[in-house]
Amino acid sequence: MNLLAFSVRRFLAMILILWVVLTLVFALARLSPYDPVVQIMQQHYNVAEANRIRHQFGLDQPMWKQYLNYIAGLLHGNLGKSESQQTLGQPVWDLLKHGVPVTLRLGLYALLLSLIIGLPIGLISALKQNSILDHGSQSIMMVFYAVPTFVLVPLAQLVIGAQLGWLPVTGWGAPGLLGFKEEILPVTLFAAGLTGYFAKSYRSFVLEVLSQDYIRTARAKGLKQSAILIVHAVKNTLLPLASIVGPTVAYLITGAFIIETFFGIPGIGYITVESIFNSDYAVIEATTLLLAAFVVVINFLTDIVYAMVDPRVRL
Amino acid sequence: MAEQELPSETVINAEGRVALGDDAPGAAAEDEFAATRISSPARDAWRRFRRNKAAILGLSVIVVMVVMAILAPFMHTSDPAIPDPNVINGGPSPTHWFGTDFVGRDGYSRVLYGLRIPLIVGFVGTAITVLIGTVIGVTAGYFGSRVDAILSRFTDVMFAFPAFILALIVVSLFGTYADTIGMGGAGRVLLLTVVFAAVGWPPLMRFVRSLALSMKEQQFVEAARTVGTRDWGIMFGHLLPNMWGLILVQGAFIVVATISGETVLSIFGLTVQQPNPDLGSMLYFGVQNIDNSYWQVLFPGIVLAILILALTFVADGIRDAVDPRGRD
Lengths: 315, 328
Hints:
The complex is a heterodimer.
Chain A lengths: L2 H29 L4 H6 L5 H10 L6 H13 L16 H5 L2 H29 L4 H15 L2 H15 L12 H35 L2 H8 L4 H21 L2 H16 L4 H10 L3 H29 L6
Helix pairs in contact in A: 1-14, 6-7, 6-9, 6-12, 6-13, 7-9, 8-9, 8-12, 9-11, 9-12, 10-11, 12-13, 13-14
Chain B lengths: L1 H12 L1 H4 L6 H12 L4 H11 L1 H18 L1 H4 L31 H8 L1 H28 L1 H16 L2 H17 L6 H14 L2 H14 L3 H8 L4 H9 L4 H24 L11 H10 L6 H28 L6
């Protein structure tokens, strides 16, 4: 199969999955026993007014018509309207759009930091295999990897923030030096688990490549160690590396929810968790759609990139 | 190591004989050794597991925590749901070992009861999800062709949907309703269990399917088919008994993931509602109060860390015991 045919097939599969996702969200929202109109009106509830609102939002139409309206709305970028008391009737997207750049920045910083720290550690561990350096660093990385973010964050906030007072434990986006200091703790803690994962995985990728025949050939023909590493070894670890960086996106989303909630960073995760506390279900549905779509699209792109680099995948 | 373990087994197996007297237990051990030491994959795996100190330590910790969670009504020092207004945000003391929270409820008692929800959701949810994944996977792998195509496409779609987000939306949409169907948050616990059971199985299905695909071509399956064993008999009588070790390994890691997922949802306020305790929500409210009461973060945090690490050690131990070649 050529690359184009493969891409088209994957693209159609992606569209199918997106359709299933949004249908599932619609079905869950309609099946749930909670009624948005009751939620909005609360103690002012009366039947006539409720029916008027239902008519206004098209909730009195048959289910299949509501479903078509919903899909037509999504195609026009309408993610629904807020149902909580404070922000009643505002388009959900207006609430979420300020969070998008915050979450993306947080995730990108964490991903970059974990790659910058994790990959060299993995490389050095592999080159000094079974040395004290290798075992020591791999044990530390194992701890980073195994201790979950939701335990690491509160304990770090407690010790570094509250007890020692070195860094602020809440806030985001302050100007100047304070803004930088605010970012250190969340980004570092976010990156910790990923750093451990990358260091562990990259070590085994490098070891795998170093045991190949072509490395021995390169040594035999007298290439310098640095040339062997850069030209032959590191280059051939990039493919397996790409295959593990793509799927970390799903981890980054869960991680962003935890980090933003604990640090009060106004990203998508924080806004969504706030809307859980406020019973603003429209926001939760919109976030579900956005994040699911994001993950599905990233998986699609990973598949395409992978197929470009490794033709065997297209079979 | 193997020799040291011998006596304990022989005593159990040779109870009648040893009761005759304390002379020559060694001879009895020798006899029984030949009779009882029939090697089986399960027995070999258990022997390897027992030698793994980290795994045994982890297992002991989990057993202790499960016992504490079950016996919480006998071990608590005060009612976990009833606040004492005299000691709001009180530090650790002889009456309140883990301090008190922002309305004056006892931290130690809340940790005891708070263990119950992650443990129930983790173990029961995983058991169900493993059952679903195994049945679908072995069916798809064994029958192949159209059955496989349908089941695999279904799994692909479920696999692509981020499990955490699916759990998040289902629990937020149905949680309030679930609270109304049971006493003390039982409905919510049931909902959490079902949700994690429903979202966790796709990776396991793929794994079991690939095992079934490779195994069904082997001779013992052919032999079973030759003597007229039906398809279901081959799947459950011949394929599954050869897989359960590897499935157990996956299951152990799913427990870790499920308990983590439950904790994250409870940090977001989606677990049993106040005043019922859950470790994750204790952690969340502790952080809201972090500047003047370290104990509200420290104790639930450490208990959760120990629980997750113990589970990870056990999962690693099971993996090394079932498949020793997979070790680094």
